[in-house]
Amino acid sequence: MADILAARAMRTGKIKSILILRRHRGYIYVEADRPDVVIELIRGIRHAKARAPLLVSKEELEKILMEKIEVRRIAPGDIVEAIEGPLKGSLARVVDVDYDEGMASLSLLDTPASISITYPLSQLRLVKEKEEAEKGESGAEEVR
Prior knowledge:
This protein is an alpha+beta fold and about 140 residues long. It contains 4 helices and 7 strands; from the N terminus they run H-E-E-H-H-E-E-E-E-E-H. The protein has a 5-stranded antiparallel sheet. A two-stranded antiparallel sheet has the order 1-2. The protein starts with a helix and ends in a 6-residue tail after the last helix.
């Protein structure tokens, strides 16, 4: 769909930029002077929403773009807590992190069996970094 929008944007010359973020699946950010230009751009495209495009302020877009910087501090070996989603409140050890996709592979700590899952970085909160988590294990401290 991005290729279709880009081709149409080049023909009209009224679109300033098109931004697609992997972690926001299903959303395409289009910069234009007027909303009707965007409506005309998506008209007739099969999978585009039929409703009017949402206006996003520059401040909101900056906040969305800065999210990635905040989540990069989570690294393999860290202890994290799920703050949203079906595992809210669960603790897990980070096994691997894919920053481009915004996902982390986790090993749940709250379960008797070792369960590995993939979870969005935006729904995780850092509890302890790797060094602190290792000290806690040797000193029999509680993770929380």
